[in-house]
Amino acid sequence: MLTLHTAEASPEAAVLVDGASVAAIGTYEDLAAAHPDARVRRWPGILVPGLLNPYGLEILEGTYHPDPREADEFGTVPLGGERAREIFRADPSRLGASARRGVQRLLAHGTVAVAGELRARPVVDAVRRAGLGIARRPDRLTGPVSFSPTPLILLPQLAVDGPARFAVFDVPDRAGLVRLGAGTCVATVIGGRLVYRRV
Q: Are 166 and 111 in contact (CB under 8 A)?
């Protein structure tokens, strides 16, 4: 089934998705007229190719993402450093579940690919199941480990017949995205599937 994604602040960058691929890119008006039977998803803000988070290794293997049911013991925010290492040493099986929750947090920040040499099999599995791309880490990283790193790294422009992988942010333009960060994500699409939607 064809799905047409359009964002209010970037109607010229509407994307028609067919399965896991981009079928067409253009203005919303042109694509809607050419494909009147397509399901339409309207979003606030801008539609962009999605983000590469350069800290995949640190976020997924070096951070413990507590389950909400563990709030009394671990709190609700991700734990890094020695605290995370202690948790994984005490119970190595926690790594896979933590990585799955970490992946969900990444998706909620418009991340469609991560960088860093992932080593742990449960982490690699979580990344692959979500459909996240794995890229080479940039040579120079300037900001701290974050779900909204500075600077934000946008992937190359979408292409017809390329993978349907993009994100939508509730900002007026790209300058707003840089200023307000990836926490403004309202939707993330990977392989043509809506893998995150802000409610």
A: no
What is the per-residue pLDDT for 153? 94
Distance, first Cα to last Cα, the chain: 24
Mind listing the domains of the chain with CATH numbers? 2-49+157-197 (2.30.40.10), 52-135 (no CATH)
| pLDDT, tens digit, 9 for 90 and up, residues 45-54 | 999 999 999 9
Q: Quick one: pLDDT at residue 116?
A: 86
CB 125 within 8 A of CB 96: yes
Contact of 111 with 50, CB cutoff 8 Å: yes
81-90 vs 94-107: helix crossing angle, rounded to 10:
140
CB 114 within 8 Å of CB 53: yes
Predicted confidence (pLDDT) per residue in 9-20, tens digit: 998 999 999 999
pTM of the model: 0.94
